[in-house]
């Protein structure tokens, strides 16, 4: 075999390896989604005299013993309109939605996280990843990009970890950060994940996970907006941010019922 033939054979082998790598990665996400999606829930409030009775606020996900739910504090903690309005989670699909009341077990306003506790039957839970992802990692997140407008169907989006950056946040999130919350997020030593991936207003609180294992590496916190909040739907920026999962683990350690 000539040198040219050997070179061509090596090129053919390399092309075969490269062409098989992408389908394998795609298959990993396809295989893990049935595990991830049952643990992703809607966060909202219930008021029986309201139409509709349930108002969607954010996405959340179940961890630990199946009775702990994590989401963004900025999306979940606004005051209730009356003593008859209840905070909780929404599960199910289509017209078969179910509302389960929840209580706030702990808040981490510095990292914009909230831990909700449920009672009753545990739900499928996601595992937190102990090691942070590296820049350039291929990740994914699942949530409700437009809330219940699309019928509570969890949607999954791919994202690349573009940078691990200081928490000097350049824009508001889907519901707007108060000046106090923004100043807290800008404290020295706090870093966030900058993602090359499109998140929408309802994605606040979505789990950011490793597509190969389903382990959660972060919590979607905000997306950079072009113009108005409504413009995020028609003209998304493609730049989103996530809170690293280590802060979720710390919140759970400090929470009643957390693990």
From TrEMBL:
Ranges that cross the membrane: none
InterPro entries: Peptidase_S1_PA (IPR009003), Peptidase_S1_PA_chymotrypsin (IPR043504)
Keywords for the protein's UniProt record, in alphabetical order: Signal
Record carries keyword Transcription regulation: no
Record bears the keyword Coiled coil: no
Leader sequence segment: 1-26
Protein name: Serine protease
Originating species: Pseudoduganella plicata
């Amino acid at each position: 075999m000539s040198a040219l033939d050997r070179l061509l054979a090596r090129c053919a082998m390399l092309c075969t390896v490269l062409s098989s790598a992408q389908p394998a990665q795609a298959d990993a996400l396809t295989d893990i989604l049935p595990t991830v999606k049952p643990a992703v829930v809607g966060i909202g409030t219930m008021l029986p005299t309201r139409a509709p009775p349930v108002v969607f606020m954010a996405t959340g996900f179940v961890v630990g013993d199946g009775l702990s739910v994590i989401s963004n504090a900025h999306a979940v903690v606004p005051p209730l309109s009356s003593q008859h309005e209840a905070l909780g989670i929404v599960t199910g699909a289509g017209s078969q939605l179910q509302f389960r009341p929840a209580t706030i077990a702990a808040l981490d306003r510095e990292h914009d996280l909230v831990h909700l506790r449920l009672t009753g039957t545990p739900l499928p839970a996601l595992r937190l990843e102990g090691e942070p992802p590296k820049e350039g990692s291929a990740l994914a997140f699942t949530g409700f990009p437009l809330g219940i407008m699309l019928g509570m169907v969890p949607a999954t989006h791919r994202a690349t970890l573009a940078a691990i950056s200081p928490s000097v946040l350049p824009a508001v999130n889907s519901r707007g950060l108060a000046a106090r919350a923004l100043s807290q997020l800008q404290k020295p030593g706090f870093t966030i994940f900058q993602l090359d991936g499109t998140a929408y207003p309802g994605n606040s609180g979505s789990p950011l996970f490793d597509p190969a294992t389903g382990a959660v590496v972060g919590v979607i916190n905000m997306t950079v907006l072009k113009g108005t909040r409504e413009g995020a739907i028609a003209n998304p920026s493609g730049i989103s941010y996530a809170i690293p999962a280590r802060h979720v683990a710390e919140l759970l350690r400090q929470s009643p019922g957390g693990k």
